[in-house]
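Final report, results section. Input specification for complex C-07:
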Amino acid sequence: MDADTVAEDRPTTTSTDALASWREGPTRSAVLDFVARVSGEGPTPPVPLEERIAVFDNDGTLWCEKPLPIQLDFILRRLVDMAEADPALRDRQPWKAAHERDHPWFGAAMDAHYAGDDRMLKEFAGGVLAAYDGMSVEEFEQRSEAFLRSTSHPTLGRPYLGCTYRPMVELLDHLTAHGFTTYIVSGGGRDFMRPVSDELYRVPRERVIGSTVALAYAGDGNGGTITHTPVLDYLDDGPQKPVRIWSRIGRRPLLAAGNSNGDSAMLDFTQHAASPSLRLLVLHDDGEREFAYTAGSEAALEQAGRDGWTVVSMKDDWATVF
Amino acid sequence: MDADTVAEDRPTTTSTDALASWREGPTRSAVLDFVARVSGEGPTPPVPLEERIAVFDNDGTLWCEKPLPIQLDFILRRLVDMAEADPALRDRQPWKAAHERDHPWFGAAMDAHYAGDDRMLKEFAGGVLAAYDGMSVEEFEQRSEAFLRSTSHPTLGRPYLGCTYRPMVELLDHLTAHGFTTYIVSGGGRDFMRPVSDELYRVPRERVIGSTVALAYAGDGNGGTITHTPVLDYLDDGPQKPVRIWSRIGRRPLLAAGNSNGDSAMLDFTQHAASPSLRLLVLHDDGEREFAYTAGSEAALEQAGRDGWTVVSMKDDWATVF
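Structure output:
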């Protein structure tokens, strides 16, 4: 065994290189101190391993969500394909906007949603639900994986799979190295993320929580098939996030990270009677390296100040973004 | 360190004592051979660890479900308490049957359900949904745990927590020792089983899949509360079992064990293109040590013969039941 082999056997995260892409400062210190406290490296006893649960929103928290969420690009291409195949769809929303490349229509639907008006989102959802009706879960995953592996971000000049935030991936690894179990709790589609979650985040498919349509099983004595139905099961956003965390995990998390109003309930829920907790809110204030925006995050930022959540400034706290 | 300490440090399952409560014969051999094949102990390469998923029904598969499912006893006591507190409820089903100790009414509702007629079950479900409306998930768990720790089986002369089948617990441990991840996939209530699943089966709470009402989150800036609503989210039975397995795990299992028609879809779904699979159907044919019945299992037993599932005879295949 030579020296290189020995080096490779070492854990990838050590105390000296933990959170290497984070700038020194109060935010990085708050994260490191919290993990040290939970692990019993300070004066207080360690938190039992089974309670070390960390939950992460995906869009805007672990990877880029501007100019449009990555899954929205995937869906728009599907709507364009449908409109190409059936001209009657070109006069109906959301196929009309997709076919005419009217992207602001979709952005406006999301902005209205975060402001509490779901009318456009419902029109859009009708199209999304029709887009995959009757498709098997396996075929849907093949399509989402093929898209994610072949498509690049429209303005950042990097593949979509290169749009994850390096500091957050380091945080996921640092938590895992300290006995945490990490979950994704996304408003995006659960089955859209599953094919790449382990590779991107070391979060295996069974620890991906996200939105989904209702599924239906048809048996055939030979394994059977699970297919998408045109009915929303739930949108994993807002107050649904704590409900889905409870349903899947059965515990309150110790750490939650998000970036928008849709994450506030999850951060609020992240609290234990007798253990420390950490709530992180990623602030998109870096128009040079990523994007600068607070639309859809105003209430969350306000609550962060009120409830002592830790705001992570992309501009100030991250030495590297991607 | 003395000899006793050394003995306690040994793994509880070794090749010689694996499935010790199972009688020698084709059923035990089929199980051991399957696990050996999956683990690469035979001529074929091992199945990747992440694909080694095993799913188990609970009532009638891991623990006793006669004369009434254990959770039904829990619910009946709650209905009696409600009828004691509010006389108007004593003329309405299911409070009437609970208050009059008319247990056959509930058995008839279950028999009708398994025969495809859900009218009585819906009447019963209305009572169950009202019974816990507005209760927090924490309080519900405290009540179910207190009940399970304090109540005995009505005829077997043992506490409810002693009503698990020893051979099945040995099977769970044998699978875990061979790299499997085990899940409970029960028609019973998910949150009813969670407080005891780890202790009884070494299945931690996040790997319990079961039925549930819809839950609602109300935030208060201080952790908030998740409460039961009077609306069924889903009954984890029949074709819902594969759907819930996919939703939670995102994989088809390699092994599934059940005992009733409600488990057939789950067993059918347990199939991989390139890996072995094992489908177990527990047959209650031991009126002396447990109960003898096939009501609600007729179609499953028929399919077992047709599709090559392995039928486990409690009388012939198990040396010990409890």
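DSSP finds 13 helices and eight strands in chain B. The CA atoms of residues 34 and 64 of chain B lie 26 Å apart. This concludes the modelling results for the funded period.
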